[in-house]
Design a protein that fits this description.
The chain is an alpha+beta fold and 206 residues long. The chain is built from 8 helices and 5 strands; from the N terminus they run H-H-H-H-E-H-E-E-H-E-H-E-H. It has a 5-stranded mixed β-sheet with strand order 2-3-1-4-5, with helices on both faces.
Length: 206
């Protein structure tokens, strides 16, 4: 592919990602090369800023103004008011490719679930209630148990999972993340052999 064709493709990609149409007038090969590099940087920066996972990570850490959430969610085609459960998973070592593949199979993107990396040893799964058999507490608890048992059996890795109450709005995600993180730290210290728990276990076990 010559640089002119690459430039046309880069302009098409930018329009697809941002909705912005641009024309580049370059007379020399050097100008084409420079324009191509700048377009790739612009597309990369936009993807990073408006990536779904980056958006959800920012929501979890209160890094996005609340007035901007609905607009950003619409741009990314994420329903802001769909009922969801947040699962927080932590391993004793690191989330390797085997564990990532297991989680991908348990929560495929087609189900509407998001797998959100956090640290080398932890990740979050934002799971729509519609992808579960029902929204009962028992079903949500059994899903947490399934995560632990499957990762343990197939990847031979020990993990802990905490899970939230049903979230009815993306604006509740930061609160759910704080609560599940606290549950993971506090309850796991007081009950070292337990592998999955709900945030309300903090009230009864700590």
């Amino acid at each position: 592919m010559n640089h002119t064709a690459e430039l046309e493709k880069a302009l098409t990609d930018l329009r697809h990602i941002t909705g912005i149409s641009m024309e580049i007038h370059a007379e020399t090969e050097e100008e084409v090369t420079k324009a191509l590099e700048q377009l790739k940087l612009l597309s990369s920066a936009y993807k990073e800023k408006y990536n779904k996972i980056h958006f959800l990570q920012s929501l979890m850490t209160d890094s996005i103004p609340t007035y901007n959430v609905y607009d950003r969610a619409a741009r990314l085609h994420i329903a802001p008011e769909e009922p969801r459960i947040l699962y927080l998973l932590e391993t004793s070592h690191s989330l390797d490719e085997d564990i990532s593949e297991i989680l991908k199979n348990l929560f495929p993107s087609q189900s509407g679930a998001f797998r959100i990396p956090l640290t080398e040893a932890s990740c979050a799964i934002l799971c729509p209630v519609r992808s579960l058999a029902d929204s009962s507490q028992e079903t949500v608890h059994l899903t947490a148990r399934m995560i632990v048992d499957t990762v343990n059996a197939e990847a031979l890795a020990r993990v802990r999972v905490s899970y939230s109450k049903t979230l009815h709005n993306l604006l509740d995600l930061s609160t759910a993340f704080r609560e599940t993180s606290l549950a993971l730290k506090s309850v796991s210290c007081s009950i070292p052999n337990r592998r999955y728990f709900h945030i309300t276990d903090l009230e009864s076990d700590v």
